[in-house]
Design a protein that fits this description.
Blueprint lengths: L1 H7 L9 H12 L2 H12 L7 E17 L6 E16 L4 E7 L3 H46 L17 E4 L7 E4 L2 E7 L4 E5 L1
Antiparallel strand pairs: 1-2, 2-3, 4-7, 5-6, 6-7
């Protein structure tokens, strides 16, 4: 009986902080004007929650790394300016914020949102701020993918030994090049062992 109970027991979360990592990543990449507008709309006429500044807001730089083709060895692409801030709410919850560029206000807002989520208000903030930011990020990714797909080039490879449609083999040594006959236009090209005539 104990073995069955152990088998049916749900697996523990491999990364308990995954939700917070996703939230901080989303807030860090969000446009500052959109983040500020959503925060102001959520607050309404209320004042920001009372808090103390533990660090910052301060401006610095981080190294951005990339991979060639997304699979190669990592390399240093360059530095990017970021602003970070850490705050503590009156309840004791601590929040961290990192945003792109030089924007102390956005970094402080990000830290406040993180602390409020850690305090237990994640459901309200998910609906009012996080979900709209996530939808906007997905729309931006889709737009970039569509723009990149418009420049996609398809390459076709002719494999030696694979029969071609409407193609006929002729002996080697015959003249090569374009021509015209009863079957319409045709084109001959040399392979390693034969000349292939492809009817067009």
């Amino acid at each position: 009986m104990s073995e069955i109970a152990a088998t049916n027991r749900p697996d523990p979360d491999p990364d308990p902080g995954a939700a917070r990592k996703e939230r901080l990543s989303l807030l860090a990449k969000a446009p500052a004007d959109q983040l500020t507008a959503l925060w102001a709309a959520w607050l309404g006429d209320a004042e920001p929650p009372g808090h103390s500044i533990l660090r910052g807001p301060e401006i610095g730089a981080v190294m951005v790394r990339g991979r060639a083709g997304a699979v190669g060895a990592p390399f240093n692409l360059g530095e990017m300016t970021v602003t970070r801030c850490t705050i503590r709410l009156a309840s004791g919850a601590v929040g961290h914020g990192h945003v792109q560029g030089r924007n102390p206000d956005a970094a402080r807002i990000t830290a406040l949102i993180d602390a409020l989520c850690e305090q237990g208000e994640v459901s309200a903030l998910e609906t009012a701020i996080l979900a709209p930011l996530r939808d906007a990020a997905q729309a931006n990714r889709a737009a970039r993918a569509a723009k990149a797909a418009a420049t996609k080039v398809e390459f076709f490879t002719m494999v030696r030994g694979v029969p071609l449609p409407r193609a006929t083999s002729v002996p080697c040594g015959r003249p090569q090049g374009p021509g015209q006959g009863p079957g319409g236009l045709w084109l001959r090209f040399q392979t390693s062992c034969r000349v292939v005539q492809l009817n067009i």
